[in-house]
Design brief:
heterodimer; A: six-stranded mixed sheet; four-stranded antiparallel sheet; 12 helices; 37% helix; globular; B: mainly alpha; 13 helices
């Protein structure tokens, strides 16, 4: 594997950013690797500041930052030429056709005129706006505008795409579509994506890795599969009488906890047989029996504790 | 075999781009061209074309009329009394320049800030300075068409009807047309852009630009004539642009029109005054946009 393929897309070491007395980023150390990475954290965690630093729109107070092999503080224009960015806000020129806006953004990023027209059309087809591409953006729904922004971010075939709250303002169906689209951009289109969000479940659905920020520092970072490791507990999901099953297992000496219709049991020798017997004795349906998997929310809560 | 069965490709999937790419400097040209198109209302609905068309008509129409008069009246004293000099022609098109500066030029800056387009620009291969340079070049370019265009039209037309300068005088006159046109275009660009950089609302920018062009003239006029304030105050009025053009062409004044306060100042002061306006407009833009990239 080549060095470029294994090198992190973004590498931050001790990155600090202050706004007068407020420390927005505090000695941030993180590597963002290839794939789709969720930049997560509550409002005020430092996500927006970090994206601004990645784009070279702000200057850091300390530390080293490397984006696609360049320092954005000194080579901001070169870095931004290779990045696609979709901002959080929904404001776009209302009287401009989607195709014209996306073409213009393509030209801005160095595409020749004819190629920009071709790729703008392609990008709008890819995001599902092929038939709508000659509509003024002012007549489009929030979901369609989010797609226009995504098309504008990928039109020049960037190496890295930064998406700031791309599902903001979308209804559940639109959100599902947008997440599927982002997943497709990251997997089929071969672009690395950093998606800033405060919705943990979104990152859980589409991201390969996450960086969880809190108070300007990295709370947790890594590949999702590593962070969301299986716990040492067994989850017994039944359709009824969970407390009674828990009582039987507890009486047999197992460490048990009840979560709604599910029973969580600390793994020990003979636990599977005990669960089988308890379910059979009570005559309840067993929906699922398997290792209790941590959600991203569990990881976040654990890290924030 | 597939051809025989009429197989068709419905989706070629995503295709990456490995063609040529321009350098980031080209982004300036892209923004410049886009801005020229927007302020002129090109690729936009009819109503967006009305104001720039009126401004261009006001700038060129007197020239067309003067050429018509020249073609039909015999050369002589009457003709010389009717036709303005090249320097005086700048005064004739002040209305067009003011109209463009106040009602059309704000489109170049205000709309980008209001619609979030600025965020997309600054997240691309541009920074605030390059963005402003492209915007200034676009607006100044159109203004230049309004200042230099009619004068070139006059020069060519007068020459065609044998009322133009001698061949020996033409290069100097051409230079004067360009030098005066650039100065006046930059003056009105500076006023329009400086004001527009302070607001996201085109209407506010329009009113403010009109006030900047009108209020100093009235206030300074009253101060000098009534209160005996120094003539140098006249440098704070837009009259400095027309006076600059007048000086570039080396025109002599008609004594019957009186001597405006700015005419009593040296040419150096007039040029410095014009430069001050242009620098002030640029400085206001730079300060206003200094934090724009960071705003996102």
């Amino acid at each position: 594997m080549s060095e470029a393929a294994t090198a992190p897309v973004v590498s931050a070491r001790g990155v600090t950013k202050r706004y007068r007395s407020t420390v927005a980023l505090d000695a941030l150390d993180v590597d963002i690797v290839h794939g789709i990475t969720g930049l997560l954290g509550p409002n005020g965690a430092g996500k927006t500041t970090f994206i601004s630093l990645l784009l070279g729109l702000r200057t850091r107070d300390a530390g080293e930052l490397n984006v696609l092999g360049h320092d954005p503080a000194t080579s901001g224009i070169e870095v931004r030429a290779r990045i696609g960015f979709a901002p959080e806000h929904h404001n776009l020129p209302p009287d401009v056709h989607a195709a014209d806006l996306v073409r213009h953004l393509g030209e801005l990023h160095g595409l020749p005129g004819r190629a920009a027209i071709q790729r703008a059309n392609d990008a709008l087809w890819q995001v599902g706006l092929g038939e709508e591409r000659f509509r003024p953006i002012g007549t489009m729904s929030t979901g369609q505008r989010q797609r226009v922004k995504l098309a504008g971010a990928i039109v020049h075939d960037p190496e890295l795409v930064l998406l700031d709250e791309p599902t903001d303002g979308l209804d559940p169906l639109q959100r599902d579509d947008m997440l599927a689209l982002i997943r497709r951009v990251g997997s089929e289109f071969g672009m690395d994506i950093v998606i800033s969000s405060h919705h943990l479940e979104e990152a859980e659905r589409i991201c390969d890795a996450v960086v969880i920020l809190g108070g300007g520092s990295v709370v947790r970072a890594g590949r999702l599969s590593e962070l969301r490791r299986d716990s040492e507990r067994l989850l017994v999901d039944v359709d009824d009488r969970a407390p009674e099953i828990a009582a039987i297992l507890h009486a047999s000496g197992f460490d048990v906890a009840v979560h709604g219709e599910a029973v969580s049991v600390l793994w020990a020798e003979g636990v599977h047989d005990a669960v089988r017997d308890a379910v059979a004795d009570l005559g309840v349906g067993l929906r699922r029996l398997g290792p209790e998997r941590q959600t991203l929310e569990d990881v976040y809560m654990e890290a924030s504790a | 075999m597939s051809g025989e069965q009429g197989a068709r490709i419905f989706d070629v999937g995503y295709r990456s781009y490995d063609g040529p790419r321009s350098t980031p400097v080209w982004a300036l040209v892209t923004v410049w061209r886009h801005t020229v198109q927007r302020v002129l209302g090109l690729h936009r609905s009819f109503r967006h074309k009305v104001l720039p068309t009126i401004a261009l008509l006001i700038a060129f129409l007197p020239a067309v009329i003067f050429v018509g008069i020249t073609a039909f009246l015999p050369a002589g004293r009457i003709l010389n009394d009717i036709l303005p000099s090249y320097g005086e022609y700048v005064g004739e098109i002040t209305m067009a320049l003011a109209l463009f500066a106040s009602l059309v030029a704000p489109e170049s800056l205000c709309t980008d800030r209001r619609t979030g387009m600025l965020d997309l620009y600054l997240a691309g291969p541009l920074d605030a300075k390059r963005y402003l340079a492209a915007k200034w070049a676009a607006v100044a370019g159109v203004m230049l068409v309004m200042t230099v265009g009619p004068e070139l039209f006059l020069l060519v037309s007068y020459t065609v009807v044998s009322a133009g300068p001698s061949p020996g005088e033409t290069p100097l006159l051409l230079l004067r047309i360009v030098v005066s046109g650039v100065g006046v275009a930059l003056f009105y660009t500076a006023v329009a852009m400086g004001v527009s950089s302070l607001t996201t609302r085109r209407a506010v920018a329009a009113v403010a630009t009109v006030l900047v062009l009108l209020v100093p003239s009235i206030a300074v006029g009253v101060a000098i004539e009534s209160s005996g304030a120094p003539n140098e105050l006249a440098l704070l009025t837009p009259g400095v642009a027309t006076e600059y053009a007048f000086r570039v062409f080396g025109d002599s004044r008609d004594p019957s029109n009186g001597d405006p306060p700015i005419a009593r100042l040296s040419t150096g002061l007039v040029v410095a005054g014009l430069g001050g306006w242009i620098l002030l407009g640029g400085a206001v833009c730079l300060v206003s946009y200094r934090r724009q990239g960071a705003r996102r």
